[in-house]
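Newbie here. two chains, one complex. Structure please?
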Amino acid sequence: MLQKTLMFFISFSLLFGQTTPQLGLSSHKPELTVYINGKIIVSPASSKTANTMIVQGNKIMAVGENLKPPKGAEIIDVKGSSIYPAFIEPYARYGLPEPKKTKRERKPKPSIDRIGSIHWNAAVKPQKNAVDDFKPDAKKAKEWRDAGFAFIQTSNLDGIFQGTSAVVSLGDGLPNKLIIKNDGAQFMSFSKGSSGQDYPTSLMGSIALIRQTFYDTRWYKKAWAAFKNDPSQKRPEQNISLLTLQNIIDKKQPVIFGVNNYLDIFRAAKVAKEFDLDFIYKSGSDIYKRLGDLKKLNPTLIIPLNFPQAPYVAFADFDADVSLAQLKEWDIAPENGARLAKAGITFAFTSNGLKKKTAFLKNIRQAINRGLDKKTALAALTTIPAKIAGISNLAGTLEKGKLASFIISNKNIFETGAHIQTMVIEGKRFEINQPPDQDIRGDWLAKSTFMEHNLKLSISGKTSSPKAEAKIDSFKLDLKNFSIRGNKISFNIKNDTLGFDKLVRFTGRFEGDDLYGQVVLADGKNLPWSAKRENPFKEKKDKKKNDKKAVLSSFPVTLPDKAYGRTAPPARPKTVAITNATIWTADKKGTLQKTDIIFKNGKVSQIGNGLSIPKNALKIDGTGLHITPGIIDEHSHIAISRGVNEGSQAVTAEVRIGDVLNPDNIHIYRQLAGGVTTSQLLHGSANPIGGQAQVIKLKWGTNADGLKYRNAPPTIKFALGENVKQSNWGDNYNKRYPQTRMGVREIIWDTFQRARDYEKEMRAYEALSSSKKKNKIPPRRDLELDAVLEILNSKRFVHCHSYVQSEILMLMRLAEEFDFRIATFTHILEGYKVAKEMAVHGAMASTFGDWWNYKFEVYEAIPYNTTLMANAGVVSSVNSDDAEMGRRLNHEAAKAIKYGGLSKEEAIKLVTINPAKQLKIDRFTGSLEVGKEADFVIWSDDPLSVYARVLQTWIEGRKYFDVQEDKILRNKIKEQRTALIQKVLASDGKNGVPDGKGATKKFYDEDYKCDDSVDYMEGAE
Amino acid sequence: MINLNLKRLVTVLWISFSILSFSHANDLIPGKKQENPIALTHAKIFTVSGEIIDGGTLVFNNGKISALGDKSVAIPQNAEVFNLEGKHVYPGIIAAYSQLGLVEVGAVRATRDFAETGTYNPNARADIAYNPDSDITPTVRSNGITSALIAPIGGRISGISSLLNLDAWNREDATILKNAGMHLNWPGMTIIKASWMKDPPKKQQEKINKNLKEIEDFFKEAKVYAIARKTNPDIKIDIRFEAMVPIIERKIPLIIAANEYKQIDAAVDFCKRHNLKMILLSGMDAWKLTGLLKENNIPVILRQTHTLPFREDEDYDLGFKHPALLRAAGVKFCIAKTSSASWDIRNIPFYAGTAVAHGLSKADALKAITLWPAEIFGVNDKIGSLEVGKNATLIVSSGDILDMQTSNVEMMFIDGRKVDIDDKQKRMYRKYQSRK
């Protein structure tokens, strides 16, 4: 049996380089090695111990206790050492060229020159293969080996679809030999990397692109199948990218998705679910946030060990720039491993993101120190990454038959002071940190005929780099040029008082406790000398290091994990009763003085005088207080990640704000403090047909899905005028269609017509019998036209950014032509000029209280606009478009009283029931009527007065803001900041001084207005 | 060739079109010089410097307040009398910072005259470019603003501002205080980590250091120049350094725009070392450095209260309560609009109103937009409060001027001249009200 295996191995080893001609003499090194006396950890899971491993060529032939070495084997005694399976890196770019950054000019680049039948978007390159470009890099390979790695899953890590990875070995030889797997995973990210193309400029654009690409992949397969069945049809396009992606859709190839932000995992997972896929994620260091949600998803993760640097807080004037979120991330991130393990989430470690590979083991030890158990740690370095890389059959454990790739370390590798002595990769040994053959340290007594007294030579320090001191009696001598090479020692001594007035040069060799050699005196005379070791070196116990206990993170994770985060969602009292308050119903009832209101189970239950209050009710004395419905903002851009505009194309109906909600955005809390309960998060105004909007309720603390308001029907942003004509984008932006208000109409008309045609084709295809479908190339599903079609069929409602009267009229007539109605014109500063026409059309209006004059199209804006429109019978509201204004929309509503004399009753409706009507949620919220959701605000004063303050904000019967609780939170923030700053100062880690010797201010918040158009998708993820 | 000519033609057409269409101007006639005494009676008079007088009388003549008190104040026989029963009288509101009259439409380049090219423009004077006929000005007056600091922006030193009244034929008769201050934008001193920041930290730090050194060098050289010119008037005039002489000699304050702690701290240190008269503009972190500001007598032209805290951990109402914090600490300040300040300076009274909701007294809120800005610019002998001998620059509102619900300016006098408070927006309102 053994012989048979042996034969197999021998023949296997001959495979390498088998197609390469033999140049010169052939080489036949013996390939049988036996490691004895080691502490062999066969796999993270196994509890079996072994002390012998037999290696034939590049494979493990046997592992066990006291195995008998085969004849002719080289025996390597690793007594005292431990042997671990070598580490596997699941996520890296190694041996592949650095992606070339396409130089971006400040002008549009809508398309690329295509070479080959590739995808239209330069960030979609699934057809790339790491094997095509792999070239081993000796210098880098050594760095990896020194850190304990034997295999790397390598990919170019560039773009959205990045291509297929390869798994390579860090041994020596040709790429042909080193590539152990050529069909790895498809790597993906949200970032377009080196692509110089405009689309996508936003995260939602990136998500839309991924989604459409998967649909196209499905279509491509069907289209070609149908074409083969009936070649008389128009031939479908050739597309190598879509062809490659069949493997993913057919679940033949795994996907590894790289992100840096934990929220992106949930975003990517949504897309994966849509196509019934499971991605593996490479996360960032914030993965501990919202672990509960992560557990529900239960993904396989690859987590980094680049723990956040300690924030710079040494100077008091810098620490304000460091947020509590940053401090907590620094404090908690080293516990990622422990926390994930506790949650039962499978993960591998990656060194991706670490500047120096030498930090890898150190940080693993830190993770262990912070609660990760060693078995899980070892699995995360071996078996899990092996599985992720698809090489479980080859590596990850030291079982028989696996590639002989292992770490030999002086002791338990996870303990302080452990170092890797040897890396064995596919049988080949790489010495890493070989201790000297002998330990020379200790006190030596040297004598020579030229010395009257014995010379005491004390050698201490590390074995690898010892230090020496020379004395005669108690006189210290001047010792120079001390060096040890192998078993050879040399040093020079000088001391006037003892007669060595010039340098005396000693050289010698040592063996055990004896040392002998030659000394050359200053005059060149050569004499023998010898020494004997009196005392061996005694290692001083580094108490400080060994006794250091793990300092765990100081504060619990909150939702979100930052200032003002919650430890738990707010409770919903069964009954809430407010008595004797002024109640602004925003309903027919108007404003009621000294009235009671009762909320039950999150709904308005009763309004009236002298209501009987249930005993268990939460009672609030409303004397002197005012209650209004929750404020609703028709036009907001808060809580959106990485770009509010996908402004790269004139029509981007496929992108969805709902894909990129950021539940951690501090503006949610701040808007609550201004009484806002519901906001419509709109796409920006960079294009005539923008993206799909998302209505949210401001449930601070909940996740992205929890924010979404299900009762709101779908909406979409349109825009007209200067922004979509690119009037103020600079001189380079004068080519994209349209550039005039004339063209704006035409492109919208054309898109509507395309959608109608698309609908026809789809219907015709759907009507076919399933057998006929097989022979008919299906129309391609187009997410952009899907959304436009919903508009035409009144299933999705248009909120159109608009200013001047001509364009407002235009869009209403255009909609009428296509037999639907525009729901709401937003901003609409010249609405007062066409209010009559709007009322007839049925369009509503959401405007600014008093903005004007910042650009030419708002030069005839007037603050009386709101009142004039309201008086003409247009359902009107005021909106913010701005995170600051959003928290005092009551002020903006009050301006309609000042400008045009709107009544108070009508003014409060501008920010409550009217925007609710515009969002078509007025059946559920927007006024205080029995049966509606308990969304309300408690004010200190008349809410339309500048002197009013929000005391409490409630959503669906839960209190999400309370000015008193806010005070408590402020104190808590202060305490936690202080404690963590002290912790940073006391930590021995470097004080986070960035390259520039100052604090870096991290901008977490993304504040947008509608014309914000930065490219958020540039560069690598 | 044809193409080229066509292009040129289009350009020419475009330019002429721009000039035609953007030469906006209001057609309101500035108030006539006061000829007869005017008496305002039965009014609630907010003197600001003193008590509120209920049912009070205010008389002004030759553009100056001549009498002020309760109903016992004698009314000159030839006086034009306005019975203001139930109305409020306030001193005119001062916008302590703006680009009013320097820009008509922000997005239209041809109408922008607020930022000269280059980094150091101490010689640029904002009042030179001031358009008293801007269509924006009457809309600002409509909310009770009678005077405004007209300030340049951009670069490191943007130039010189002047304090003007908002009803005039030209900048000369508009001038209350010529050369009110020199504007310096303190460089950012924080290294930023954000997706839009392309410079690595090291490069950012180098830029910060370079910017700081540039300011030092510029002022050192200006000082050398000032001394040289004094001792030898024959040396050649350097137009930039010449403009710096009154700054060096402390005749004109240096108005430094700075928000962050580090910036304010560095700016104060800079002014101390160079012996300069400093006014802090914007000052979002001023509340953290009240001791430093008070000790060095540095007043603050405070950023509008309608401002988000610029750090995530900060109190949501920091902007709202900032005036109250400065007041409690005894720092001199006024409330202004300090970012993109042209059309929206009409909301200054409501910025003050918001401060009242967050701890400032109503009396102090009024001071913060009238008397205190006048004191900061040293024109409180003329404007800022209602006192005998001061200019008759005042407004009449039917209600509380700090609350948008009640603010309704019915009359305005500047130096005793009755100001037409109509504006383009009111006219458009009337026009479209008539559409049935």
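Moderator note: Confidence is low (pLDDT under 50) at residues 1-15, 543-547, 991-999 of chain A. Chain A touches chain B through 75 residues (CB under 8 Å). Thread marked as resolved.
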